[in-house]
Amino acid sequence: MNKVVANADAAIHDIQDNATLMLGGFGLCGIPENLIAALVRKRVKNLTCISNNAGVDDFGLGLLLQTRQVKKMMSSYVGENATFEKQLLSGELEVDLIPQGTLATRIQMAGMGIPAFFTPAGYGTEVAEGKELRVFDGKHYLMELALHADFALVKAWKGDTMGNLVFRKTTRNFSTSMAKAGNITVVEVEELVEPGMLDPDEIHVPGIYVHRIFQGAAYEKRIERKTVKM
């Protein structure tokens, strides 16, 4: 099945206000740059965004925060974005801070069809408030629910027209799990190839999870902080 669409705008044509989105990547590494830009152009609002972090002020998810299209952020790390901080402190933005391992596992469980799991992370803190608590072998755990989304927006290094995906290095963090956890998965790739051109042993996400795919362009591939050795 050919799942190719023309561009990012076509790929998100049915994302509406109040949608819940997962956005892949780790920091600014491997984020769906073209899809985020398309969301800004589409001006959808009241979005709930699930992502490891909130981008920086002028890049990544920071662009959606600047235009105030995000109603709620569900993240594990948000320390690089002053716009995020201002909106949080002013009460404009609802925030659910989730331990990073818990966030990753909640997404993985959604992709695996497992509704909940128990973890010791967060026990005895505000994270545990309102959640079921259990004791296993004398150790305290809290129950966390699988995390689903209306759309998963991810970027891969390579993909074929059937949706099979190959990621590079750190870009696999979150993206491979998110691709399996969205009701609709939309993927942008740096290189789009024909079926049979990818080594089956190198495929990280099989095409059965992917609904739409397109070749992106003009990637900036920024980093959050550059450190050089003196």
TrEMBL record:
Organism whose genome encodes this protein: Chitinophaga caeni
Protein name as annotated: Succinyl-CoA--3-ketoacid-CoA transferase
GO molecular function list: CoA-transferase activity
UniProt keyword Transferase, yes or no: yes
Cross-referenced InterPro entries: 3-oxoacid_CoA-transf_A, CoA_trans_fam_I, CoA_transf_BS, NagB/RpiA_transferase-like
SUPFAM superfamilies, per the entry: NagB/RpiA/CoA transferase-like (SSF100950)
Keyword Transmembrane: no
Family: Belongs to the 3-oxoacid CoA-transferase subunit A family.
Keywords, sorted A to Z: Transferase
Source taxon at top rank: Bacteria
